Amino acid sequence: MARVLVSVTRGHPVDDVARACAAAGLQVEKVLHAVGVVVGTYDDDPPDLAGLPGVGSVEPDGEVHLDG
Amino acid sequence: MTAPFPTGSSRPGGTLTGRYLLVLGDDLLGDDDTAARACVRELTGLTEVTSSRDALPLSPSGFHPTLLARLGVAVAELDPDRLRAARADRRLIAVEPERVQRALGSGSGLSAEYLRGFADAATFLRDRAIAGAAAEAPVPARFGDTEQLTWGLQATGVDAVPETGAGIGVAVLDTGLDLGHPDFADRDIESRSFVDGQQVQDLQGHGTHCVGTACGPLSPGSGRRYGVAYESRILVGKVLGDDGSGTDAGILEGIEWAITSGAQIVSLSLGADLDEVSAAYENAGRRALDAGVLIIAAAGNNAERSAGNVGFVGVPANSPSIMAVGAVDAALAIAEFSAASSAVDGGQVDIAGPGVDVYSSWPMPQRNDTISGTSMATPHVSGIAALLAQRTGARGRDLWTGLTQAAQRLPLPSGDVGAGLVRATGG
After folding, report:
1. What residues have CB less than 8 Å from B124, skipping those under 6 apart?
2. CA Rg, chain A, in Å?
3. In sequence order, which ranges of B94-216 are alpha helices (DSSP H)?
4. ipTM value for the complex
């Protein structure tokens, strides 16, 4: 399973983009309205999300560490 | 892009030309002017530099930087950003506005009389600057913890302002907080974990230390004061597990929670050493600013300066809409580990804070610890942002501007410390 972060462009309702991503095959985990990001997963082939209206970018979820 | 600084020569009655005299340090001077030219090119952003060593007439149009190589002085136009960078550049002895002593002729070249006069003035200026630097150089600031205050609170002037952070929400997204720590008893704390299977309770220590610096008490139960915004509302989001790592998704979820929970400031002492901007964090930073929330993040600790490696600002601090924080030590020198600005859009260090040997809270029973990192510099900035927000009512972008305007200029490259050392006074 892979997790991706979908950034929603300005002017597009985040819920609409989340629905479109789900219809394209993304298993939507979280819809973050305030930051404009949809978090979702897929099992095998990555769904083609880049061309969907309101999708600004799709990037893999990464690991982050403390900085001290 | 910043508009070019207007030249003063067209100002009626103006006594400044609008250009600046850059007095070059000895390291730039030598038998040839290669290093000096390179420095002037870098500071002006212009490739064409006219030098007194050239056979050509000196900068007849006034639009090219002019290097008087033997005198160690250059004349150049600098927009405000470049002026700021030049004044912070340690290769220069001084940067002063060029003054007009008399109206110059409108001919196409500079007269020999003007050049002789200018050379005399430049020599005088350089000698004076060097003598002044030797005689008047301030003793380098070297702070130290006292019985009352940490060095970081002294250096940033936190103890000199009346603000407390009251009414301001500061979200610290990290490894959580020791919720039973006596220094946080009776505080207004809201908390939530975004790490599967782990409670907010901090078993790592890093989060408790960061919360302590940003929001710790005025009078701890024991020891010196280490906290900045001691009456702020504390929002603790556990986005890093007790092993000190987390995921972008969890951190973004934490930012979402902080914004919707009413935080005005989000403090992120975390990152990944990636030299590219994440669209997701930039989306978050921009929308946060739109909502009046300022996200402040550690620049990163990937430098090893003693080995010549200055590192680079990583994710998420390299997002243009997220304020990146570098670290200085108690002598206000750049920290060995503090990452420098990167070339990506938004990859600049924006401001610096105390980040070496920082004393703060630590999970009980230890109670306190002293550690280092840009992680420690970041909550200083976040706490001071809360003081400034309380004082001025500024939020989001205005708060960002207020912090950088109030910063204390340091004699360090802006690529390392941005606008300088965060200060609680001013703004």
Report:
1. none
2. 12
3. 112-136, 151-155, 206-215
4. 0.94
